[in-house]
Structure to design on (714 residues):
C-alpha cells in the first residue's frame, strides 16, 4: 500500500500529442521520492547522451516531492529538470508557489514531456483528465494575459498556471518558468527548454486532499498548526516574514562580500540605495506566501515614480537586488525593481540576466564592445537606464541582447580578448550573488554543483561558524560536530560541506523549501522525519534522508560524466582567486592550492575519483545505483 | 548612539525594532552593548562602527557613533 503519493507519472509526447499514465513502484519511489531525485533517475535512464538541449529530443521533467502539497509551511516545492541549454549538463531548478501542490492534488507526481509540438500548445490537467490545447493565440503574450485567458477558457478561476514568457519563447538560454506570475524555476534554462517544445503553459486544477492519501493525517495536521505559530517564534523565519531576502543586502556589504561591479569589489558605496530600509520605503506594497506557508517571505512591490513597476510579477529578491544593483554599480532600487519585473514578465532568470549585463558592462568599459554592438547604449557600470534597456534587448534578442541571451560563457567566447576573464560562471551558469571569498564553502558548492554555480547547494559557512548559534545547533542532528571559520579550507570543511550538500539535495527531492528546515530556518530535523513518516508510512532515519539527497546528487554527477564533464569543469572563475578590491575583505582571495586540496578531500569523502570525479562503483552500489553504474559504464575499481 | 539590529537580530528586541537610539554615559564595549540589548553574541556575524567592520570582542563605541550588527547570511 502506498501512502503520501499516487505514483502516477503523466507522460506527454508533444510530437504526436499523445498522453498516457505510468505508475511507479513503491520500491522505486522509496529510493527516489520525487523532485530532483525522481527526475534525475528518469533523465539518466531515458535521455540519450549528446542531444541538443533546445532540440525536440531533450526531455523536460516537472516533478513534485513526497511532501509537496502537505498542509504545513514550506512544503511547496517542485523541480524542473532537463539537459540544460546553458551548461549542456544536468539542469535543475526548484520553485515554490501553488503549481506543484495543485498538481499533487490532481493526483500526479510528475510530468515527463518529450518531443516538440508543431504549433504552440498548453496542457490542461483537471484531476485525471488531460488535454493538449492550442496556444497559438497565447504565444508572445505576457504571462498575466495568458493566465487570464487560460482561466477563462478552462472555466477554472483557480487553475494554477505554470508558463513561459517572451524570453523563454525566444530561447534565451536562461529562460525560466513562472507559476502564479510570482514564483520561478529560475535557474538552468528550464523555461527555454519548455519554449523549445512549443509549450506555452501547463495549467492544472486538482480536487484531492493531501491528508486523504497520507499514512497518518493527524501528525501532519498538528504540525501544520504548530509550525504556523513557530514561524514567529524563531528569529530566522520571523525575519524572512518581516523582510524576506531583501533584508540581506546591508549585512553582506558590511561583511565585504556584496558582489559589486562584476565581483571585482565586495562593498558598494551606493548600498544605502539598495538596503532594506530603502526597499520598504520606495517599493514595498505587500507580502505574499506560497501554498499553506506561514513564512510569507515574498515581497510585493509597486512603483509609479522614476520607473513604473507593475505589482503583478512580485518584488525583487536579494539575488536580484545585488545582481542588478551593486553588481552593475547601480544604486537606484526602482531601476532594479523594473529590471526584475521585466525578467519575471519575460521569464528570464534574474541572476543570469543581471550577471550577463554586468559582464557586458565590464566589456564595454574595456572597449571590447561599443555603441555599435549595444544599439547605442552607454553600457557602463552605474547607468541604470542602459541596464533596464539591456534587459529588454535580451528578451527580444536585439543588438547585444542577442549575444547576452546565450549566457556569459558563450558571449565571452564570441567577443574574445579578455572577455572570458570577465565571465563569472561555472560550467556556463552564472554565479549567484554570494562572493565565496568570504565564505569558501559556497565556492565549493559553485564549483562542484552539477548544474553550475548555485548558492543553494549547501548551507553557507557562516551559519556553521559559531557552536553556540541557533543554526549550528540545528545542524547537529545531521552530524555536524565542528564549528569552522567561514574562510577555512580544509578536509574538515569538506566534511561539513558534504553533509549539508546531502541535506539540501534531500530538500530538493522531498519538496521542502530551503527556508523551512534547519539550519537555515525553523523546522527541526525531528519534524522533517515526522512529516516523511506520517506522509509515507516509512520508518526512516536522518541518515536515510541524507542518503536520498546523496543518491540524487550521484545521479546528476553520472549524467554529467556521460556528457563529458571532468574535474576541469568543477572550478571557479579566475577572478575569485584574485583579491577583492575593497570592503572588509579587501585583499582577500581564495587560495588556489588550498581550494584544490579541499576539493580533492571532498571527492574522496563522496566516494568519487578525485582525478575524474566519477563516482566509484562501490559507492554507487552502496546507494543502490548499480543500474546507473552499468548505464554509464562505471567499472569496479575505476 | 544609533544602533542597528540587522537581519533576525531585531527579533530579540522586545519591540522588534531594527534601529534604536541609545544615550550612553561614555564609551561602551560592543559585547556589553549587545548584552544589554539581550542579543546573543553567537548570532552576530558582523559588527560595524561608523561603517567600518570591527571585532565584536574588542571594539567600543560612544555617543554619536552608528553601530550595526548583522547575522550570518545563509543564502536566499
Amino acid at each position: 500500500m502506498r501512502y503520501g503519493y499516487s505514483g502516477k507519472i503523466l507522460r506527454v509526447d508533444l510530437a504526436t500529442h499523445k498522453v498516457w499514465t505510468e505508475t511507479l513502484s513503491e520500491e522505486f519511489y522509496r529510493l527516489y521520492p520525487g523532485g530532483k531525485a525522481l527526475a534525475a533517475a528518469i533523465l539518466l535512464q531515458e535521455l540519450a547522451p549528446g542531444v541538443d538541449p533546445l532540440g525536440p529530443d531533450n526531455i523536460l521533467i516537472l516533478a513534485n516531492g513526497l511532501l509537496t502539497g502537505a498542509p504545513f509551511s514550506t512544503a511547496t516545492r517542485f523541480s524542473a529538470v532537463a539537459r540544460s541549454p546553458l551548461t549542456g549538463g544536468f539542469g535543475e531548478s526548484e520553485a515554490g508557489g501553488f503549481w506543484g501542490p495543485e498538481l499533487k492534488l490532481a493526483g500526479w507526481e510528475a510530468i515527463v514531456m518529450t518531443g516538440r509540438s508543431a504549433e504552440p500548445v498548453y496542457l490542461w490537467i483537471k484531476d485525471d483528465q488531460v488535454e493538449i490545447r492550442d496556444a497559438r493565440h497565447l504565444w508572445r503574450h505576457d504571462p498575466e494575459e495568458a493566465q487570464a485567458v487560460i482561466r477563462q477558457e478552462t472555466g477554472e478561476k483557480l487553475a494554477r498556471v505554470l508558463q513561459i514568457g517572451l524570453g523563454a519563447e525566444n530561447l534565451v538560454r536562461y529562460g525560466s518558468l513562472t507559476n502564479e506570475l510570482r514564483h520561478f524555476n529560475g535557474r538552468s534554462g528550464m523555461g527555454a527548454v519548455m519554449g523549445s517544445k512549443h509549450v506555452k503553459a501547463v495549467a492544472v486544477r486538482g480536487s484531492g486532499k493531501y491528508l486523504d492519501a497520507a499514512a497518518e493525517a493527524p501528525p501532519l495536521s498538528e504540525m501544520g498548526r504548530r509550525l504556523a505559530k513557530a514561524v514567529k517564534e524563531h528569529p530566522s523565519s520571523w525575519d524572512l516574514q518581516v523582510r524576506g531576502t531583501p533584508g540581506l543586502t546591508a549585512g553582506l556589504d558590511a561583511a565585504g562580500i556584496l558582489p559589486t561591479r562584476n565581483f571585482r569589489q565586495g562593498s558598494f558605496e551606493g548600498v544605502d540605495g539598495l538596503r532594506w530600509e530603502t526597499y520598504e520605503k520606495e517599493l514595498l506594497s505587500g507580502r505574499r506566501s506560497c501554498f499553506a506557508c506561514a513564512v510569507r517571505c515574498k515581497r510585493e512591490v509597486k512603483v509609479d515614480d522614476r520607473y513604473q513597476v507593475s505589482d503583478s510579477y512580485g518584488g525583487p529578491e536579494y539575488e536580484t537586488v545585488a545582481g542588478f544593483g551593486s553588481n552593475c554599480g547601480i544604486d537606484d532600487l526602482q531601476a532594479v525593481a523594473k529590471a526584475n519585473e521585466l525578467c519575471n514578465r519575460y521569464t528570464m532568470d534574474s541572476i543570469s540576466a543581471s550577471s550577463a549585463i554586468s559582464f557586458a558592462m565590464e566589456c564595454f568599459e574595456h572597449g571590447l564592445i561599443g555603441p555599435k554592438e549595444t544599439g547605442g547604449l552607454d553600457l557602463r557600470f552605474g547607468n541604470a537606464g542602459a541596464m533596464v534597456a539591456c534587459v529588454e534587448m535580451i528578451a527580444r534578442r536585439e543588438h547585444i541582447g542577442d549575444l547576452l541571451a546565450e549566457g556569459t560563457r558563450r558571449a565571452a567566447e564570441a567577443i574574445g580578448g579578455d572577455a572570458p576573464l570577465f565571465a563569472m560562471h561555472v560550467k556556463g551558469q552564472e554565479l549567484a550573488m554570494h562572493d565565496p571569498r568570504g565564505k569558501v564553502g559556497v565556492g565549493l558548492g559553485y564549483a562542484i554543483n552539477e548544474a553550475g554555480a548555485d548558492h543553494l547547494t549547501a548551507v553557507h559557512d557562516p551559519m556553521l561558524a559559531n557552536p553556540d548559534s541557533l543554526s549550528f545547533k540545528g545542524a547537529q542532528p545531521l552530524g555536524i560536530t565542528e564549528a569552522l571559520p567561514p574562510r577555512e579550507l580544509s578536509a574538515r570543511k569538506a566534511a561539513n560541506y558534504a553533509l549539508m550538500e546531502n541535506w539540501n539535495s534531500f530538500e530538493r527531492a522531498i519538496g521542502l523549501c530551503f527556508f523551512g528546515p534547519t539550519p537555515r530556518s525553523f523546522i527541526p530535523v525531528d519534524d522533517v522525519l515526522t512529516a516523511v513518516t506520517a506522509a509515507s508510512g516509512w520508518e526512516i532515519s536522518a541518515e536515510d534522508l541524507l542518503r536520498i539527497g546523496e543518491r540524487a546528487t550521484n545521479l546528476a554527477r553520472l549524467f554529467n560524466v556521460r556528457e563529458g564533464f571532468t574535474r576541469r569543469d568543477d572550478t571557479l572563475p579566475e577572478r575569485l582567486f584574485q583579491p577583492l578590491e575593497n570592503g572588509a575583505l579587501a585583499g582577500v582571495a581564495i587560495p588556489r592550492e588550498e581550494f584544490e586540496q579541499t576539493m580533492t578531500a571532498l571527492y574522496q569523502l563522496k566516494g568519487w575519483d578525485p582525478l575524474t570525479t566519477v563516482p566509484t562503483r562501490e559507492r554507487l552500489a552502496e546507494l543502490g545505483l548499480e543500474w546507473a553504474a552499468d548505464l554509464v559504464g562505471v567499472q569496479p575499481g575505476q | 548612539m544609533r544602533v542597528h539590529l540587522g537581519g533576525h537580530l531585531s527579533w530579540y528586541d522586545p519591540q522588534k525594532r531594527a534601529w534604536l537610539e541609545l544615550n550612553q554615559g561614555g564609551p561602551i564595549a560592543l559585547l556589553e552593548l549587545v548584552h544589554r540589548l539581550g542579543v546573543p553574541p553567537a548570532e552576530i556575524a558582523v559588527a560595524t562602527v561608523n561603517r567600518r567592520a570591527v571585532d565584536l570582542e574588542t571594539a567600543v563605541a560612544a555617543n554619536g557613533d552608528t553601530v550595526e550588527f548583522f547575522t550570518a547570511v545563509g543564502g536566499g
Remarks:
- The CA atoms of residues 168 and 599 of chain A lie 35 Å apart.
- Chain A touches chain B through 40 residues (CB under 8 Å).
- Chain A has 27 helices and 18 strands.
- The longest strand of chain A covers residues 199-205.
